[in-house]
Amino acid sequence: MDQVAQDLALKGGAKLPATLAQRKQNKTKKDRLIALLSKPNGPGVSVLCKALCWQKHTVRAALSGLRKQGLAIETARSVKGDEAVYTLTVQSKVEIHS
Q1: 84-88 and 73-77 beta bridge pairing
Q2: Looking at the DSSP assignment, which residues form a beta bridge with residue 77?
Q3: pLDDT of 81
Q4: pLDDT tens column, 23-56
Q5: I want to staple 72 with a disulfide (CB 3.0 to 4.6 A). Which of 53, 62, 63, 89 is the partner?
Q6: How many other C-beta atoms can be found within 10 angstroms of the C-beta atom of residue 3?
Q7: What distance in Å separates the CA atoms of residue 37 and residue 93, rounded to the nearest whole number?
Q8: In angstroms, rounded to a whole number, what is the distance separating the alpha carbons of residues 76 and 73?
Q9: How many angstroms separate the CA atoms of 35 and 47, rounded?
């Protein structure tokens, strides 16, 4: 992209990824949510809210959407028992990677 096009794009508030590697790093929030749910102990609602800049009801709605798409998500209580912790089951992890 030439300098004029870059200046016009940046004036509009858009940020342009400089390389192909940076484009691959720009994952959707859904991809980031699945990556967080794939961790061994699973994140709590507060961790998901902070990582994705979402409110609690948005996190729960996104989890519901993933379940509707066929992913198996387990819900448990944290050790302290004060918040829900979510994890993808082994079966879901296989489906994502295949």
Answers
A1: antiparallel
A2: 84
A3: 75
A4: 556 689 999 999 999 998 899 999 999 999 999 9
A5: 89
A6: 7
A7: 10
A8: 10
A9: 13
